[in-house]
Amino acid sequence: ELPNPEKYGRNAMEELDAFVEDVIPEDERPDVLETEIELEHAAEGIGHHLDEGGFEFVVMGATGRNRIASALLGSTPEEIIRRSEIPVLVVAEEGELGPWRRILVPLDLSESSRTVLDHASQLAREEQAELDIMHAFPPTGVDGSSLPAATPREARESLQDIHAKRFHRIVRDANLDDLDWATHEVSNRPN
């Protein structure tokens, strides 16, 4: 527990406000700009704020101040992505915000893949960008279990066909008519 949470919170708020003033010029700030301080572990504080805030979108950095802790315990963005029910954009330290001309959309063929492709296609329309839709998969059984190396080639090819059919069904069902797009499938097949 912090020795003087009120003072710590006040100092943190001053630091946050100064940071925002430094990064966003006054004439470029949105009409409504709120700053908040949560005196908790980053993922817990962000998560609680998400749960209570009625937000529709999250934008956050890929790395925080403590890279060693992130490597050992998992990163805050990973925790927020797992817990969030709304889209999360994770921005690399040197990342540029649009315009985007090519958008990579990796799909894992889960039910959320349809939502992912829908959001990506909406973004591609707004940005007039190309979509590169891909599915990378290991040679696994239908249940996700690993196949023994001795599995016959025909069985592996059959499973690859099942993955390909799922992938193409998701892409076919998406509304991509007015977009430039391409698909790619990558499999880690043993020789």
Q: Could you please describe the fold and organization of this structure?
A:
There is one protein chain. With 191 residues, the protein is of the alpha/beta class. The chain is 43% helix and 15% strand. It is built from six helices and five strands. The strands form two sheets. It has a three-stranded parallel sheet with strand order 3-4-5, with helices on one face. Strands 1-2 form a two-stranded parallel sheet. Helix 2 (42-53) packs parallel to helix 4. The longest helix is centred in the last third of the chain and has 21 residues, at 153-173. The chain is elongated, with a radius of gyration of 22 Å. The termini are far apart. The model has no long low-confidence stretch (mean pLDDT 79).
Largest sheet: 3 strands, parallel
SS elements, strand count:
5
Unreliable stretches covering 5 or more consecutive residues: none
Strand fraction equals 5-15%
> Helix fraction?
40-55%
Strand order across the largest sheet: 3-4-5
Structural class: alpha/beta
The separation of the N and C termini measures 56 Å
Q: Spell the H/E element sequence.
A: HHEHHEEHEHE
